[in-house]
Design brief:
single chain; about 200 residues; alpha+beta; 3-stranded antiparallel β-sheet; 5 helices
């Protein structure tokens, strides 16, 4: 690894700036598109037929992603929050607010925690690696309720990428089910309806 500027990091910088502009303009589709394009660079590095393929880069990306999740988990726990679950690129954090707190207060609390964690992350990256951080944590969703079923045969650990949550929005709530029978195509309609109802 070298600190010299390279072609691919330069391309990522362009996409990073364009995504920031799209987010500032409220263009969610463009922002998401740039995010997907930037994430696809990982696939490029992992494709043996690609000129830029590199197992070292692929390994370091996945290692650093896991390292940062653990780093964030430690930061949250030092503030007295409970990290309920984490997977490849996300953490579910209980900040200890009462269940009847108004949406505006709970949502602002999430935004504030995310912003302060980003500042700490930027400082950590600069102090540890002597580079400006290109990383940005996002406060994505506010759950009023969350079901994290345990992995089969295990206790105390949520099933990987399988959960259901009631997302709170300003004037509504939305049920989100991820990776469970209710959204899997290999289960029957009856099981889908039963689990959603449950």
């Amino acid at each position: 690894f070298a600190r010299d500027r390279g072609i691919l990091p330069g391309m990522l910088d362009v996409f990073f700036d364009r995504r920031a502009s799209a987010k500032a303009e409220g263009n969610d589709l463009a922002s998401y598109t740039y995010k997907i394009v930037m994430n696809s660079f990982y696939g490029v590095f992992g494709t043996p037929s690609c000129r830029f393929a590199s197992n070292k880069i692929v390994g370091s990306i996945t290692y650093f992603g896991a390292f940062l999740l653990r780093w964030c988990k430690d930061i949250f726990e030092k503030q007295g929050f409970t990290v309920l679950y984490g997977d490849t690129d996300s953490l579910f954090v209980d900040v200890g607010l009462p269940s009847n707190v108004p949406f505006e207060i709970a949502n602002q609390r999430g935004i504030d925690i995310c912003a302060s964690t980003n500042l700490k992350l930027n400082d950590f990256i600069l102090e540890t690696y002597s580079v400006d951080s290109r990383l940005e944590l996002e406060f994505e969703k506010l759950y009023g309720k969350l079901l994290l079923p345990p992995s089969r045969g295990e206790t105390g650990r949520g099933r990987a990428k399988g959960y259901a949550g009631l997302i709170r929005k300003k004037d509504s709530e939305e049920l989100q089910i991820v990776g469970m029978e209710a959204v899997r195509r290999d289960w029957t309609d009856v099981s889908h309806e039963f689990q959603r109802g449950l």
